[in-house]
Amino acid sequence: MTDTPDTTRDWRDTVFLPKTDFPMKAGLAAKEPAILDRWARIGLYERLRAERAGRERFLLHDGPPYANGDIHMGHAMNKVLKDIVVRTQSLMGKDAPYIPGWDCHGLPIEWKIEEAYRAKKRNKDEVPPAEFRAECRAYAAKWVDVQKGQFQRLGIMGDWDDPYLTMKFDAEATIAEELLKFAMSGQLYRGAKPVMWSPVEKTALAEAEVEYEDVVSTQIDVAFEIVDAPNSPWLVGAYAVIWTTTPWTIPVNQALAYGPDVEYVLLTPSYGRELTDASFENSDAVSDKKLLIARELIPATQRRLGFTAISEHWSGKGSDLAGATARHPMHARGGFFAKPRPLLPGDFVTTDAGTGLVHMAPDHGEDDFELCKAHGIEPVFAVQGDGRYRDDWAWLGGEGSVINPKFVAAGRGGKLEEGPICRDLREAGALLAASDDFAHSYPHSWRSKAKVIFRATPQWFIPMDRPSSKPSPLQGRGLGEGVSGDPLLDVTNLSALPLSPTLSPEGEREGNGATLREIAMDAIAHTRFVPEKGRNRIGAMVSGRPDWVISRQRAWGVPIALYVNRATGDYLRDPAVNERILAAFREGGADAWYAADHQALLGSDYDLADYEVVTDILDVWFDSGCTHVFTIEKRFGEGTRADLYLEGSDQHRGWFQSSLLESSGTRGQAPYKAVLTHGFALDGNGRKMSKSLGNVVDPLKVIGESGADILRLWVAQTDYFEDVRIGKEVLAGTGDTYRKLRNTFRYMLGALDGFSDDERVPVAEMPGLERYVLHLLGQLDTELRSAAEAFEFNRYARALTDFANEDLSAFFFDIRKDSLYCDAEGDVRRRAYRTVLDVLFHALVRYAAPILAFTAEEVWQARFPSEDGSVHLLEWPELPQLPADQPLGTEWADVRRLRQQVTEAIEPLRRAKTVRSSLEAEVTVPTLPLPADELAELFIVAKVTQSDGEIAVTRTGEAKCGRCWRHLPDVATDGDLCGRCAKVVA
To answer: CB of 460 within 8 A of CB of 560?
Structure first.
């Protein structure tokens, strides 16, 4: 045996290389389902609830998606964000249960059943209500099961065995109970007001069910002959000119509105020798008329009517028109059309567009309704639920639909022939101009994509401005004349229906407490919004919103369980009757209302013959607005509020608002402490996803190809407070980030092979590099906590990945691989490195778990395999304490800057092949912040010396150790061993 090393030997078998079975290739799509099965088998969610019992609770209340169709990218983004929130809160030691839920009632589901009927040529109106509702229930149940599996596949952890469903009997009973709370406190009334109505779906729509699209409409200018003007008699015989983009409202016109302070001009238009393109062939009829128009709008009117000159006869303020009346262009038809149309002062009249005079149809406009109501003019309900005029209407009876462009067409400026409205007005000599070329934004139903209209119908409302300290009696009388022909208006005594208290004389309003609007605005002021701009958005909506329309004329939903007195129009308020109603709901769900013995529910104190049984259903937004009651309060105690609501930014006008109003009306506070809103998922080019564009990114396909963790990481990395993009390139970048993180864990698993507590080194005995990395870990820990508490998971993900890539892989791991591979197993430097690796492993796997739920579990089980253990049962890591008197950050920041400069200085020599690796370089630097041999190790170079000049790099002349490959003075010739390696292999 000799002490002389063998310079020809291959020393690789003596190097301590990382050892692990953890694969570099993830194979997530195949692995993740097995991990899900394991979580279910060990009862992970239930165990977590048991282990966190008694801890501070964090409640994220799940906003319910519709049980309708496969999930899309918006669903995936939303649910993953919620899961990350819940998992980080659990990681921080809180009890963070998650109860998923579904919105099961309403038009989306009815619409699907009706589509199936139409395909089979069945008429929905001929199907018994109980059968139709049963089909809706079965359809919803089917999609709840489908979506449940898809959400679970995303790694969403929650109480999937007992989700909340708005169609569960207890939920339906609770919804009815909440409605009755509003009724008992007088915060409910039935009245006729214009609401957004879908003629296709034949129901009122909430604002959140409407979207705006750019359209091209018919615009017309119509002349109303003035027949009386007591303050300006010279106007008699002249024509008040109105402009409208809804010609179908002319058949229900009842008045004209003027601006009291607007200047009006009485003029006679004239035409030049040749007609302009805007002129009608009967321009002589226009020329002969004296027209009343706002001065500021004469140029705009001139462009539409096509006249070339005017003769001005009079000008004055709108107030001069007080008391004037005009007659309807179709007055010759008699009856309704023969009544004089008063000119009324309206503060909403502007000179922004039109003529400065506005035609009033109280059936079809909010301003119209309120102004006419104030002057004793009621709606007439001429347009039925399907968009046709009533059969008995004197003009255009039985015709329509009013949203059909052919029906209202001018026959000019477009491709359509003249429709009946413009034809009749032209024949009456009242149509001054008409064209089919007015481009503007118009509301559509987001389900049917059809236009909606404003339509006055009897609806149930929750008032926004009624004082709530004590019940307010229902005020007002009358819905107007002529309601025959519309089954939706089939009530026994329309004249007894109460109108909005805000429209009643001020003296008739009772109560001196806060209004629902005031309570809601106060709640907004005391709620945390993430981002903060959400406060202004929902505040603006609530401050200006009208009364809440809560009724729908559909079949699938929770009925408005009220009895209305046929004589007084008031609804019955009796706690005993209410309790019998709710008992029936608890036993048989909302279906009980339709099959009920209503006399039995009323009891012996009331006669059913005296009462109308309300059959309208509740707006689904009221349903979802009550979910906090049967999900949060029923499970966690009365008065409990959710810590967080998290949905897309469109829910400021949807679920956030309906929940706010419901809770404010029944509890005097918001149901949530904080609200987080995220943007929408767009394609890779920033476009809205659409099947017609072929740019839909299917989350199920992404999961099937790449795994859910890739999708989860994408969500976490995005700036989700704004709209976000996803496509092949985006996902490729996410995949690259994932691979780097996975390799970080793989390296740590390999480097920690065989590590035990006996190997640990106290912090005080560690080299400076290890203590510095623990310092960086401490900074990361603080940053991640801050980001988690702020719900800024893009910041969280960025900090985690930057730490793994820049501080560990490119710095710490790179420097210490020599020690790991070549130091003796018992060497304190190697042991200290592995001690820190163990700390890093325990911290990073926990930090990553909320985002990379599957991968973190795989990593944890690779090191600590067990039958029933899980990384998701762990809590936030406790890090080693560092000496407070060692300013590691500043000192090592200087070292890292110098290291970067050295690396950059070596690169030209590497490109020139002067050196093949940094180990062959000798470096001179202007300062030595650490001993030269330590710097050589940190810079991964052969030698570091100090000089007064710039950083300089030369090729070393030292021989290369055959085992560690370092060039050192104690290596005689290439292939010999350095002193350290010789001792290790001896």
So the answer is: yes
The model carries a pTM of 0.82
Asked if 108 and 678 count as a contact pair (C-beta separation under 8 A), the reply is no
- In angstroms, the Cα distances linking 559 to 67, 312, 595, 626 are 19, 60, 12, 14
Q: Which residues contact 154 (CB under 8 A, 6 or more apart)?
A: 76, 79, 80, 83, 699, 703, 708, 711, 712
Residue 401 preceded by cis peptide, ω within 30 = yes
Q: Comparing C-alpha atoms, which of 55, 37, 123 is closest to residue 95?
A: 55
Check residue 703 and give its pLDDT: 94
The distance from CA 523 to its chain's CA centroid, rounded to whole angstroms, is 20
pLDDT at 501: 34
- 881 burial type by CB count under 10 A (0-12 exposed, 13-18 middle, 19+ buried): exposed
User: Dihedral angle at the C-alpha atoms of 61, 63, 66, 67, nearest 10 degrees?
Assistant: -20
Task: Yes or no: say if 479 and 529 are a contact pair by the CB < 8 Å rule.
Answer: no
Residues listed for the chain: 986
DSSP state of 518: H
CA–CA distance, 759 with 752 (Å, rounded to integer): 11
Confirm if 479 and 212 have CB atoms less than 8 A apart.
no
* Tokens (6 digits) for 254: 């009842």
pLDDT digits (tens, 9 = 90+) for 837-868: 999 999 999 999 999 999 999 999 999 999 99
Closest CA to 791 of 866, 873, 844, 850: 850
Burial of residue 252 (CB within 10 Å: 0-12, 13-18, 19+) is buried
3-class state of residue 293 by DSSP: strand
Helices in 120-198 by DSSP H: which ranges? 129-153, 169-184
- The DSSP string of 945-983 is EE-SSS-EEEE--SPBPTTT--B-TT--STTPPPHHHHH
b/e per residue 235-250 (b: at least 16 CB within 10 A): beebbbbbbbbbbbbb
Amino acid at the residue 953 = V
pLDDT at 684: 80
Please check whether residue 479 is in contact with residue 495, taking contact to mean a CB–CB distance below 8 angstroms.
yes
- Give the tokens for residue 716: 């976490």
* 3-state secondary structure string across 934-954: HHHHHHCCCEEEECCCCCEEE
Euclidean distance between the first and the last CA atom of the chain, given in angstroms as a whole number: 11
Determine contact, residues 152/36, Cβ cutoff 8 Å. Answer: yes
Sign of torsion over alpha carbons 763, 769, 775, 780: negative
From the number of C-beta atoms within 10 Å of its C-beta (0-12, 13-18, 19+), residue 663 rates as: buried
Q: In angstroms, rounded to a whole number, what is the distance separating the alpha carbons of residues 81 and 100?
A: 13
Alpha carbon distance 7, 29 (integer Å): 49
Cβ-contact 627, 672 below 8 angstroms:
no
The answer to whether 368 and 234 have CB atoms below 8 angstroms apart is no
Report pLDDT for 2: 41
- The count of other CB atoms within 10 Å of the CB of residue 523 is 20
Q: Which residues of the chain have pLDDT under 70?
A: 1-8, 208, 272-287, 413-414, 468-513, 885-887
| Cα-based angle 927, 932, 938 (whole degrees, multiple of 5) | 95
DSSP secondary structure letters along 909-931: HHHTTS-SSGGGEEEEES--SS-
Contact 925, 898 (CB under 8 A): yes
- Residue spans of beta strands (DSSP E) within 519-600: 528-530, 548-549, 551-552, 563-565
- Give percent helix, percent strand, percent coil of the chain, each to the nearest 5: 45, 15, 40
Instruction: For residue 888, give every residue at least 6 positions away whose Cβ sits within 8 Å of its Cβ, in sequence order, or none.
Output: 768, 771, 772, 775, 882
The tokens describing 941, both together, are: 């170079």
